[in-house]
User: Fold this.
Amino acid sequence: MNLLEIFQQVKSNYYLERKKGDANFKNNYLLNLVNHEALNAIPQNIIGNQYIVKASVGQGRWAIIPWVAVFNKEISTSAQSGCYIVFLFTSDGKGVYLSLNQGWTYYEKNFKKTDRQNNCREVVRFWRRVLTTISRNFSLEEMDLIRTNEKRTKLAEGYQNGNICSKYYEIEKLNDNNKLLEDLNEMMAVYSEISSYLIKNKYENYEALIENILLGKQFQFGNKSNQYEKIRDMQAEYLPTKGIKRDYIKELEQNIYIGDIGEQFVFNLERKKVLKDPYLAKYVDEVVHISKEKGDGLGYDIVSIIRTAESGYKKIYIEVKSTKGEAGEQFFITKNEIEVASKLADAYYIYRVYKVLAGEPMYKVIQAPFEGKINLSVCTYSAEL
Assistant:
């Protein structure tokens, strides 16, 4: 049973079964449907081994808001703490939100009653400011979970306070399971960006990060911060302290930051394309963010696939060139990238990603060979004594 079918069952039956009372809970078929079937409804090739899926319609009694969640095991394995992705059903069962959310129980246990909501929402505001992968596909509006005549529970309040971004679906109008998976895949990109903050800033867990967010601490960003950390160290030791008008370190940091956004954008884009193709969808694991997994220097950033008439599909190799400006602005390409493009021929592509910091990025695709498509000119030299 896929996600859409489970959602349709919840819409048709959950609220009615809940109204019959908790005596009807223990052996109810909906308990098995959500708590167990939902775990297999999200394909492994979407979430990988780093993530786990859990679901709940309550513990010993019906929950007002049942849920299906995806947890990054490095951040959280429980809806009580950390940060996670969750499908939250409205209390009448007619709608469901896909939400990037936080564990409210942590705030209840660690802060005074007067501070809990403010602190939780301050962390939400922080993520909304800094996360670059939240697209227009997701809303920053407050969720509306309670649609029946019941009062808001602590958990419902917690879900609404902890919501970073979300997307609402009216279940009756849903007719495409692949669309749900595409949106989930896009939300996982945002979730991965949060994970990168923990890794780059060397926090052991999400709660330690929360504490420092609330203290107003400054954070490193991007997937390649180690590159500009090394440059910063070199500047402190070797560069002159006077006469430099340009902040080269800041420029380098921003360029790396923009580059990371562009690469993540293209990686998400390629996964979406593959998932939309009924034939290619089962090969979605072939789409790999190479520069993130293996580092730079291979001459391309992302490996993806396209359909072919002969063998079904073939791999393509993508080098991402990003800018906050227009597509026509000059960009740099290395000798190694030119050589790799020559060897891979028409399987090599440049994705020119532009207007990176102006909402949803835009892009143009340039396929090798590049003759007549881009003008190349020598701009650096190698020198030795």
